[in-house]
Amino acid sequence: MSALLEVCCGSLESVEAAVRGGARRIELCSALEVDGLTPSPEDVQTVRERYPDLIVHVLIRLREGDFCYTPEEVDRMADQVEAALEAGAHGVVIGCLTPKGEVDMEAMETLVSRVEDFDLARELVASDRCHAANDGHFFPAASRHTSITFHRAFDRCRRPMDALEDIISLGCDRLLTSGQAPAAVEGTDLLRKLVESAGDDLIIMPGGGVRPGNARRILLQTGAREIHSSASETVDGVKVTSAVTVAAILEELAG
């Protein structure tokens, strides 16, 4: 089975464990005890410097609680998006809802636009450098597309299939969801439907309660090709990523 494991890491210690376990991509956040908040730009930069081959997606979540944000909060999250990208993030993980349980298209468009503006500016800088080369050749800039994941705010949407269409229309690359169940292993029916409906337009990434022993089954039952897990254990009351658990999930996916 060819599948990619994304490991959710809430600290630099957890990132180190994920890498030791064989992870190739992480979601970096802070404050996992409240289901994750935006990490500092300094932590993003540190991870990129220590592990240059690791793909780093950064959670953008301003506060704990619901996913309904004021315009002022959206502007602050847009600034967090830019700060994460300036620190070297390969992608951002975002999600905004209305009080009615629908995707907040206005808020999401603000965040997506900040990503697109950053990518365009970076591409123009790279293009200028190529034009300035002295060897007489023009080298087009490498792809600068920043990955955008819509996170598990989706699991609070009232009409999941309508929300799916909204997320696709925003240009997101993937959707992280448990299939609106307490754990992904319980939400495989909706996850499979999402995978089938999204087709090649959006990657559906099951997450929530993914552990050794159920990761492969979730993928087989849903048709997904990416999966998300904290792969954690509790040490002194704190959740930290376990290199052993990461390795065990990867071994299961490779079997």
User: What general outline do the C-alpha atoms trace?
Assistant: globular
Helical content (DSSP H or I, runs of 4+):
40-55%
User: What's the CATH C level?
Assistant: Alpha Beta
- Cα(first) to Cα(last) distance is 7 Å
**What percentage of amino acids are in beta strands?**
15-25%
And the CATH topology?
Answer: TIM Barrel
Quick summary:
41% of the residues lie in helices and 17% in strands. With 255 residues, it is of the alpha/beta class.
Explain the overall architecture.
There is one protein chain. This protein is an alpha/beta fold. The protein has a single domain (4-105, 146-254), classed as TIM Barrel, CATH 3.20.20. It contains 8 helices and 10 strands. It has helices at 12-21, 41-50, 71-86, 105-131, 160-169, 188-198, 215-222, 243-254, and strands spanning 4-9, 25-28, 55-59, 91-94, 147-150, 174-177, 203-206, 226-229, 232-235, 238-241. It has an 8-stranded parallel beta sheet with strand order 7-6-5-4-3-2-1-8. The chain is globular. The protein starts with a strand and ends with a helix. The relative contact order is 0.16. Mean pLDDT is 93; it is low at 133-144.
SSE blueprint:
Elements: E1 4-9, H1 12-21, E2 25-28, H2 41-50, E3 55-59, H3 71-86, E4 91-94, H4 105-131, E5 147-150, H5 160-169, E6 174-177, H6 188-198, E7 203-206, H7 215-222, E8 226-229, E9 232-235, E10 238-241, H8 243-254
Parallel strand pairs: 1-2, 1-8, 2-3, 3-4, 4-5, 5-6, 6-7
Antiparallel strand pairs: 9-10
Helix pairs in contact: 1-8, 3-4
